[in-house]
Specification:
Belongs to the peroxin-14 family. The chain is mainly α. Helices cover 59% and strands 0% of the residues.
């Protein structure tokens, strides 16, 4: 008697299993777990789910399932897509291991350069630094004094001009008044 194996028979009514010996391993169990799957739709769903933009999106699994339902996939096809995607992701993770070293090869230690020395503390001021500071401060004070005096002189000159103009105006006014008074006296004297 032979061992039974499960193979899919392409009959539209139902899925049957036969007890025929098979050389194929039982690796395609997911296809037999969901017998009425449209493989092209499942492949399309897997392509959508494994797309980098879909992976990077913040959509939940429920939102992705809802999207696939709107594209006409059944719940069984959606579940099969997620299961196959999970299975392929688990198989594609490479094991982490250290590289093999051939026998007879001696490993030599790796020496790293020493760290750079710490920065030097600030040095004490030298006579040149002090000289530059004194000259700079003196120049700034002289420039400020010159600007102050220049502004003060301009204000004084403007005040003198205003006084001169006002005194000229007052003198002109006084002269005109004197002329008017003199004419008025002459008229009175003629009468």
């Amino acid at each position: 008697m032979s061992e039974p194996s499960f193979e899919k028979k392409d009959t539209p009514e139902s899925v049957e299993t036969t007890a025929e010996p098979s050389s194929k391993p039982l690796a395609i169990a997911s296809a037999h777990a969901f017998p009425n799957l449209r493989e092209d739709q499942v492949a399309m769903a897997m392509k959508f789910l494994s797309d980098p933009r879909t992976i990077a999106s913040t959509s939940s699994r429920a939102q992705k399932e809802q999207f696939l339902r709107t594209k006409g996939l059944t719940d069984a096809e959606i579940n099969a897509s997620f299961q196959r995607l999970d299975a392929s992701a688990n198989q594609s993770v490479p094991p982490t291991s250290s590289p093999a070293v051939p026998s007879g090869v001696q490993l030599q230690p790796v020496y790293f350069p020493p760290p750079p020395p710490p920065p030097l503390p600030p040095s004490e001021p030298t006579w040149l630094t002090l000289l530059k500071t004194v000259v700079g401060a003196g120049t700034a004070l002289m420039a400020g004094w010159w600007l102050f005096n220049r502004t003060r002189q301009e204000q004084q000159q403007q005040a003198v001009r205003q006084r001169a103009e006002s005194s000229d105006t007052a003198a002109e006014r006084d002269r005109l008044l004197m002329e008017l008074l003199a004419r008025e006296r002459e008229r009175k004297a003629e009468r």
